[in-house]
Amino acid sequence: MFSIISPILLQAPANGTNNMLHFMMIGGMLLIFYFFFIRPSLNRAKEQKGFMEDLKKGDRIVTIGGIHGKIVKISEGTLVIDVDSGTKLRIETSAVSMEYTQNLKEATANKNKPKVIEKTEEA
After folding, report:
1. How many Cβ atoms from other residues are within 10 Å of residue 52's Cβ?
2. Nearest Cα residue to 96 out of 122, 48, 63
3. What is the rounded distance in angstroms from the CA atom of residue 29 to the CA atom of residue 91?
4. 68 CB contacts (<8 Å, ≥6 apart)?
5. What order do you get walking across the sheet with 87-92 strand by strand?
6. pLDDT in tens, 52-97
7. Contact 81, 95 (CB under 8 A)
């Protein structure tokens, strides 16, 4: 089987357009990788960095382990959070979950909004 495949793979292309097509295909694949994998990852990292910089004392957060707390103190790379009355934990800032914390903020914002009750006409 290898004796049949080896001569086929070792043959030179008939003209230069085949080589150009290969380079175009590789270039297209690199563009696809960039736009579908690298670029979204860079955007997520940028959002995460901005989120970490916006954390301030008094914010309610959720860690990646699922611990809910309120920021008491912010140090270089660490946070002290109040989990329960008087119970404090020191955690790394990288342990704060951006998604769950934003969901918590949205839930509390929606909870504080007054509910609008629409009147329906009865026949």
Report:
1. 14
2. 63
3. 41
4. 60, 61, 62, 83, 104
5. 60-62, 68-74, 78-84, 87-92
6. 888 889 888 989 998 999 999 999 889 999 998 889 999 998 889 8
7. no
- Residues whose CB falls within 8 Å of the CB of residue 105, separated by 6 or more in sequence, listed in order: 60
Phi, psi dihedral angles at 80 (to 5 degrees) = -110, 120
> In the numeric block, which tokens belong to residue 95?
């342990």
In sequence order, the 6+-apart residues with CB closer than 8 A to the CB of 51 are 96, 98, 101, 102
Round to whole Å and give the CA distance between 87 and 84.
5
65 in helix, strand or coil? coil
Ordered domains of the chain (ranges, CATH): 1-54 (no CATH), 57-112 (2.30.30)
The residue ranking higher by pLDDT, 77 or 112, is 77
Are the CB atoms for 89 and 73 separated by under 8 Å? Answer: no
